[in-house]
């Protein structure tokens, strides 16, 4: 797993499995019998935690090495019922490569999850703090826990995945090695949580997008958020005109991210996350701004995620 964007896997949250009913009801994405949900990372990764929060604890996941593989599987309805991918972190920022993957895909956003980081020091049963000589985890997870780790003289070993570190110490029955990973990883690999919530910064969240093929995605009840990509003719004031119409329509622009248009001379498209009170309000604003853009694509209309 050498994909650069892999670093963001470790900044997902660690929360208990949720019981939220997805937009289409109980029985899995698209109905009973569907294949699992593609996620980036190993069993016990924070992407799996996000999947459990959105779909329920019994959701089946398909671990993938990279986000590109997640998108590929999510686009194949014979192999999966969709996918979940991290898109931004409140400290590290946006995962630009994933926006690019989304733009080139035929996937629709049907939901989002915000997870708070809760890193944990995991050990095999019976191992005490004094027994530890090394701590293994992804580099981002180690960095997030510097306040706790600096209090000890342990050797820090960087690995490719937080959950994989937990799996390895379980497999090798290590008595002198600990891992930093999610509480879910502790449950899956029968490890003890020796020290919970050891992250230095407590107010740190990762946002995940839930995606499905367009022909599988169904209208989301009570939708109040949309993700849109557009670009203008880049004449003076063209972007300002679009933003003004969005504001006049009473829509809150919660995110605006620019991206270079491949093959152009420093021209840009814009990703916009919009929050609104009703679908009608959003559709009306789309009608108004469409003539002001050269191209516009709606990635998805969905329900705004709750911060957990």
Helix content: 10-25%
Give the overall silhouette. Answer: elongated
- Going by helix content, strand content and strand pairing, the class is alpha+beta
Kindly, what is the distance between the CA atoms of the first and last residues, rounded to a whole number of angstroms?
28 Å
**H and E string:** EHEHEEHEEEHHEHEHEEEHEEHE
What number is the mean pLDDT? 89
Q: List how many beta strands DSSP finds.
A: 15
Instruction: Specify the number of helices.
Output: 9
- Uncertain segments are 1-33
What's the level 1 CATH class of the largest domain? Alpha Beta
Question: What is the topology?
Answer:
Layout lengths: L36 E4 L5 H10 L5 E4 L2 H8 L8 E7 L3 E2 L1 H9 L2 E10 L3 E4 L10 E5 H6 L1 H4 L5 E5 L2 H10 L5 E5 L1 H6 L3 E4 L9 E9 L11 E7 L6 H11 L3 E9 L7 E8 L3 H11 L5 E8 L6
Helix pairs in contact: 8-9
Q: What would your notes on this structure say?
A:
- The structure is a single chain.
- The protein has 308 residues and is an alpha+beta fold.
- It is 24% helix and 30% strand.
- It is built from 9 helices and 15 strands.
- A 5-stranded mixed sheet has the order 8-7-9-6-10. A 4-stranded antiparallel sheet has the order 4-3-11-5.
- Helix 8 (238-248) packs antiparallel against helix 9.
- The longest helix is centred in the C-terminal third of the chain and has 11 residues, at 238-248.
- It starts with 36 loop residues before the first strand and ends in a 6-residue tail after the last strand.
- Mean pLDDT is 89; it is low at 1-33.
